Input
Amino acid sequence: MSRIKTLLFVLALAAQVPLASATVTYAVGTCESKLPSFTTIQSALDATPSPNVVKVCPGTYPEQIKITFPTTLEGISDGNLTGATIAVPSGGLVVNFTDDYGQSVAAQILVQNASGEVNLSNLTVDGTGNNVTGSAYIWVVGVYYANSSGTMNHLTTQNQNGNGLGVGVRMEGGSANPSVTLEDSNLQGFDDIGIRSETNSPSSELTATIKGNYLTATFPGFIANLAAIAIEPGATASVTGNLIAPGFTYGINIVDGTVSKNTAAGVGFRAISSFGASVTSNTIYNSGAVYADPAAAAIWVRSSVAPVTGNIITQSGNAGNAIDFDCTAGNNVHSNTILGAANALLNVSTGTDPTNTIYSVGTLRGSQTLDECP
Amino acid sequence: MSRIKSLLFVLALATQVPLASATVTYQVGGCLPKLTSFTTIMGAVGATPRPNVVKICPGNYPEQVVIGFPVTLEGVSSGNSDQVVITVPANGLGLFNDGLGDFLDVQVGVFQTQGEVNITNLTVDGTGNTVASPNFMVGVLYFNATGTVNHLNIVNQNGNGLGAAVWLMGGNFNPSVTVEDSNLQNFDNSGLIVKTDPELTMTIKGNDLSSTYGNTYGINLAFGIQLTTSITDNLITAGYEGILIDAGSGSVSGNKIVNTPVGIDLETDTVSVKSNTIYNTLGGYGIGIIADSSIAPVTDNTVAQSPIGIYLDCVAGTNVHSNTILDAVYALYGVPSGALGANTYYNVTGGINGGGC
Output
């Protein structure tokens, strides 16, 4: 082929590359002078052509954001500053979504029915001043993924509170069977649940990966039923390597999936509650520190099948139960190490003899009368 | 060799095995009827011949335990119980002068011993002590003695602001002490404190430390020119400073420190601080890591939710690198002029700040 023919061939190929494959990148704020810039995040998202990437300069952006197409939203640095904060608009949050249980939601970032991945990183989502109070049953949510896939990393969600229905991050499945990852993020100041995953469906329609996050209950007083992570029916989750600071009533509640290598300290009632998820190699310290409740336990298991192994449970507090078998679990709970508890094993299923390593506890196997085991 | 000759030969060999090499095992409490039994731990420790192993049955033992020879002290289970608790005796605790200006009232003391003293599966409870200042109230002391402490529950060494769960000192035997997989709780001064002029090698790993008292240290390397230390994979919750490093050489790595106003305070050039996680140093002036050294490596740590990620104290520079700071007002504070190491920052509103340097 002559050189001219080769050149023409290459040009012809290039002409077939669709324009849509080019990456469209916008900026919000004034720190990226070479990019088309917008003053609000939503205006950048709504611009034509739709952006593949929106870079958000440090600053405070008082707006509720809705994303319905695949894109990446990332906070960027300007000099030494890296903080892009999405704050509550003046007047407070408004309801912008109805969840799959028919309940109202005021979400600060709503990702809904996106056909591809929506990724968020390096942002603070602050619910201060949300003005959602009183008797209205409205969820206040920092970031809500509804029937959409994507990854969130290095986010800070804080202060989703005020009416007892504050959630840092919520993931809802759906017909697209989305996969959502939340990693290396900090969640604080919510007054109900840090991370909630669910689908109102008889089968799982969501795959959630929750890893390497930090969760803290920042309220000076006690909040009943405050939970760090709740994986409800209709979701399958991998919950790994998270750090749960003292102050929660519940640490991790999960129906289906795996819970491994998490650290939970000072959880008031139950650090891990499993209805069927495997629970392995977690470290639980000083659980039951708040409640003197005979039903409190570091790990509560309602499954005779799911492996509960290799966990280290140290100093189960006032009530002092390390593992509650709920009259259901048995030999699937083994190879755990327990140091310091009133009861090491509670309500062990009749006819089983689980093998665990136990140090310095009042009783190796507690009474089976608490939950009236058969 | 005929059978008779073989038998005689074996018998002759057997008679040459010294009697001292046999393991002497006693029990305390009566749950192991095949062993010689004592009612107190010190009764067994002080018996002749000296025990190699003392097995302690579940129960409360209000006594001061003093050990001066190699032995293993271990709690055992009996029936449905597995809780051996050493409590404070009614007549109080004896006093020990460490030669460094400190007076210690000790619940379990291991003194001047060549050979290992190992202690496992016990609770040492300081409840009810009447130790008054300036004396320290100490759960377990190793002074110029080698051994391993594991799966101990050392609690409630408090009352006068000078309570310490574990106290370690070196000596001319160049001792090596390991404290592992134990719970140190509700001390009102330090979870583990080290003061040593002579040599000491210590390994502190996999322990949990917490206190409801605010002005406390989790691990306090207070004094020790010849201290070699490895502090790994401990979980420290609450108190004032998680780990204070005023002395020694070695490494602090893989620890998790939560809810302390200061996570790690590095005040020496000879200890590296690597791959630790520090979370929620609370409001006000919370600091993830104080790096008061321009030499000691401070690398690969993660500090999340702290007003100040790493405080360089106008001293540290390129030795602080590859750390991740998430959610801070200042990622670095007290930054001196000159080169800095590269770190990764997320959600930092104030960037880095000279802080008056």
